[in-house]
Amino acid sequence: MNILVTGGAGFIGANFCEYELKRHPEDRLICLDALTYAGNLASLEGPLKAENFTFIRGDIADRAMVDALFEAEKPDIVVNFAAETHVDRSVTDPEVFLRTNVMGTQALMDACRKHGVKRFHQVGTDEVYGDLPLDRPDLFFTEETPLHASSPYSASKASADLLVLAYARTFGLPVSVSRCSNNYGPYQFPEKLIPLMITRALSDQSLPVYGKGENVRDWLYVEDHCAAIDLVMRLGREGEVYNIGGHNEKTNIDVVKTILAELDKPESLIAFVTDRPGHDRRYAIDPAKIHRELGWLPQTDFADGIRRTVRWYLEHRKWWGDILAGEYQDYYRRMYDRR
Ligand code: NAD
Ligand code: TYD
Question: Hey, what domains does the chain have and what are their CATH numbers?
């Protein structure tokens, strides 16, 4: 089978390419990525050596290019990771989120219709459901929870999900959607909580925790997410949504303290800073459907996953050092200097 992976040079996409090449060496992967600030060919070092892997630089919203690519590569499955993904950036510059996450998804689906693609899988997020109160640990997001996005990022992802399901109903496009909780692991860009804290702690820099650090996220090791997407895009029912999460809720402050303990660094590095506007309080996924229908269960618990992640960042200083040396410095100043 020919599988088109969009956004494959990003965090989850790169992990997914590695996962697919290992699990399904009989398939051919074509990776399409615009290499925005978040895309990095250094994350695809392994896949780029494989004969059945092709990298193409391009924008999913570029219709002419996308059409020509489908004509040439004839994908059977398209799995769409390509997106603008950082909530804080969506607060300062929402427009590109709409262009890539909504218009880009539509451009891909139009090409899928024209070229008779057998499955379009949309990689979605639990953030489309909005948030849950901190004092109701009995509540979880199910696939039936109404969409209630809080940030321009989550609103753009919710729009994309609606469009995907509308293409299924209106045009009969064979689609599936997965909505996952927060991921962590190798190759995550150091603007997101866990790699930001690891890389800053390693340089003995202050760790900016928003508000009081009481917000809760439901963390999943990235390889478990890759395994779930692989199952859904191949075996999941057409037109269905699958929530992905591992019942692993942590407050931000607990996550940061765990990282400091792993690195043997002092908690005095923690600096509480002004909260994110509209900050979602708690995310928590009910993954019963994917377990029941596809037998998926997470394989990596948080203690093990965070240890492996910290070790990866310790052993790959060049990967993140190169990022930190670039325009990232400006980004950090812009986002955190007056906080
Ligand atoms: P990321 O920001 O690390 O990577 C995104 C990738 O998309 C980059 O390689 C970037 O170059 C590429 N890209 C951006 N705009 C593009 C465009 N117009 N055309 C082609 N490529 C483009 O993101 P990630 O964390 O790997 O997330 C991947 C997907 O998973 C996203 O759709 C995100 O919404 C979803 N998701 C992420 C998480 C998480 O915790 N990271 C959780 C649930 C769902
Ligand atoms: P993030 O990794 O940006 O993911 P998301 O907002 O999509 O869940 O943030 C995870 C949590 O960590 C979120 O509650 C915001 C918080 N956070 C901080 O406290 N400080 C930071 O510097 C960042 C980037 C995030």
Answer: 2-188+219-249+278-303 (3.40.50.720)
Q: Does pTM top 0.85 for this prediction?
A: yes
Q: In this structure, which residue's CA is closest to atom 28 in ligand 1? A: 81
pLDDT tens sequence across 129-185: 999 999 999 999 999 999 999 999 999 999 999 999 999 999 999 999 999 999 999
Q: Ligand 2 mean position to 157 CA, how many Å?
A: 17
Q: Encoding tokens for residue 72?
A: 């040439």
- Tell me the pairing of strands 2-6 and 270-273: unpaired
Supply 212's token pair: 């009081």
Distance 268 CA to ligand 1 centre (A): 33
